[in-house]
Design brief:
The chain is of the alpha/beta class and about 300 residues long. The chain has two domains: about 30-65, no CATH class; about 65-290, 2-enoyl-CoA Hydratase, Chain A, domain 1, CATH 3.90.226.10. It is about 35% helix and about 15% strand. It has helices at about 45-50, 65-75, 100-110, 145-160, 180-200, 215-220, 240-250, 260-265, 275-290, and strands at about 35, 45, 80-85, 120-125, 130-135, 165-170, 205-215, 225-230, 235, 270. Strands 3, 4, 5, 6, 7, 8, 9 and 10 form an eight-stranded mixed sheet that branches. Strands 1-2 form a two-stranded antiparallel sheet. Helix 5 links the parallel strand 6 and strand 7 (about 205-215). The longest helix has 21 residues, at about 180-200.
């Protein structure tokens, strides 16, 4: 006669001697497989989100995207040649807030695998040669220090030398406070290089504004494009809405400093969803350069 001990163990029962204990603090839980969309609250599978260029398939909320992935999404496969990867920032001022600046740099390098918060490259976009670069918000909030400013300036200078269009994708909290006036100087330097691109090379400069584009970046090269494109609902402005509200003591208009607000008030030229950006850039550059209509795959 069968006894209770002879009954096969059911799938939800633990084997004899199993010791259930809480997971130790700091234990490796593996990569997160799901994200919650802040726009519609839907649960999104990370791999599916990556296939859609980090855009929610339900509400089209645009998640941040890193600089290498941004360039790969815009440029022709195999055409990207990255420049200036050996440039790194230094702590010239010995700046310390909650932690030393050099430790912040080391942490960002380890987290991103990059030396700085900007990636600049020579590439082709639908067969059109371009100098293209993208800021990376993962690296100290995409802030513009002396190295980022130098990388952007060098990119523009390559555009002048090669006589090709320049594209910059901005995602930044502004000038890097840990470098003080050295960071602020980059506003003038990048702007002067863009003036030369226009006056000497007579090549177009396209600025793509993403969430967020603020501070010294918004006050310099990001708003100087011959064509200003923006991703939907991006925050674009110099100071943040909270700072402005507290300064002037007034409530701000609904949607203030969003891409939609700027488009309505004539500050930008077009809002372009991320999935359409490559095609729009290709068509626009072809028109500006008087080239045949490109084929965008």
């Amino acid at each position: 006669m069968a006894t209770m001990n002879d009954t096969p163990r059911r799938w939800f029962e633990q084997p004899p001697g199993f010791d259930a204990r809480p997971r130790k603090p700091g234990a490796d839980e593996g990569p997160d497989l799901w994200l919650r969309c802040p726009g519609c609250r839907a649960a999104l599978f990370v791999e599916v989100l990556a296939e859609s260029l980090q855009v929610c398939p339900h509400c089209e909320h645009h998640f941040p995207i890193d600089a290498p992935s941004r360039l790969e999404s815009l440029c022709d496969p195999g055409s990207i040649t990255v420049h200036d990867t050996g440039l790194t920032s230094v702590d010239a001022l010995g700046f310390v807030d909650s932690k030393p600046y050099d430790r912040r740099l080391q942490a960002s390098m380890a987290a991103t695998g990059q030396n700085e918060g900007y990636v600049a490259a020579s590439a082709t976009l639908a067969g059109i040669p371009v100098e293209i670069g993208s800021m990376d918000f993962r690296f100290l909030g995409g802030s513009m220090g002396s190295v980022v400013g130098e990388m952007i300036t060098r990119q523009i200078e390559r555009g002048i030398q090669r006589r090709v269009p320049v594209i910059v994708v901005s995602a930044s909290g502004g000038a890097r406070m840990q470098e003080g006036v050295l960071s602020l100087m980059q506003m003038a330097k990048t702007s002067a290089a863009l003036a030369e691109l226009k006056d000497v090379a007579r090549m177009p400069y396209v600025s793509v504004l993403t969430n967020p584009t603020t501070g010294g970046v918004a006050a310099s090269f990001s708003m100087l494009g011959d064509l200003l494109l923006a991703e939907p609902k991006s925050l674009v402005g110099f100071a943040g809405p909270r700072v402005i509200r507290e300064t002037i003591g007034q409530e701000l208009p609904e949607g203030f400093q969003t891409a939609e607000y700027l488009l309505e008030h004539g500050m930008i030229d077009r809002i372009v969803p991320r999935a359409q950006l490559r095609a729009v850039l290709a068509q626009t550059l072809a028109q500006l350069l008087r080239l045949p209509a490109p084929s965008v795959g």
